[in-house]
Amino acid sequence: xxxxxxxxxxxxxxxxxxxxxxxxxxxxxxxxxxxxxxxxxxxxxxxxxxxxxxxxxxxxxxxxxxxxxxxxxxxxxxxxxxxxxxxxxxxxxxxxxxxxxxxxxxxxxxxxxxxxxxxxxxxxxxxxxxxxxxxxxxxxxxxxxxxxxxxxxxxxxxxxxxxxxxxxxxxxxxxxxxxxxxxxxxxxxxxxxxxxxxxxxxxxxxxxxxxxxxxxxxxxxxxxxxxxxxxxxxxxxxxxxxxxxxxxxxxxxxxxxxxxxxxxxxxxxx
Length: 270
Description:
Layout: E1 5-18, E2 21-27, E3 40-44, E4 55-63, E5 68-74, H1 78-84, E6 91-98, E7 111-116, H2 120-132, E8 138-143, H3 152-156, E9 161-166, E10 173-174, H4 177-186, E11 193-197, H5 200-212, E12 216-220, E13 236-239, E14 249-252, E15 259-261
Parallel strand pairs: 7-8, 7-11, 8-9, 9-10, 11-12
Antiparallel strand pairs: 1-2, 1-6, 2-5, 3-4, 3-6, 4-5, 12-15, 13-14
């Protein structure tokens, strides 16, 4: 298991990149330089007792030259509202990197990365790593509309093929990202593997598509969690088991996940 750090990190920047979406850069302990795509960090968003629990955020990217990491988050609840108001120069209580990241060895030569909304966060770092490894990477980014698309300019600098799907048709393919994935497969596009992160209904659909097309697929789940390292058991999901004496297993999103292989998660219980 990779070592993680529990300490302070100074905020370098914290800016709004789209309505109610923010990107934060934080000075990091040295362990963050070895973070893998798909891992996450637990952040205490307040020095007070409310909220008492840290919040999990996928690592958007690490900057080894600056000794920092970045997170991309949506301002949606009390914790993220507090986080959005914190100014550069403030020290954050951080714990990480945590969790099981994506397995790049499964990618093959033509991987496709499918993001829904802020689910682009861990996939950005994955795309960078796969391009560096010489892969022909497609990134399929789905959102409600054009104004909800995040870090598009940064994605375009990676040397990937960017495919956009919007539910309202304001940009790219009109419909869900999973609908565009099905269209690509019907057209016979060469896809060696699928990596996905986004809302649970999207992940369930990607899972079913991958299984039906016999595709290697990994899915990054989001979950509410209290500790981030497997003790509280607050983030468990039901998963398939090979044990004949049990109907299912429980796995922790913070440890065995957040990345799971296609066919592992029992979705009606996730």
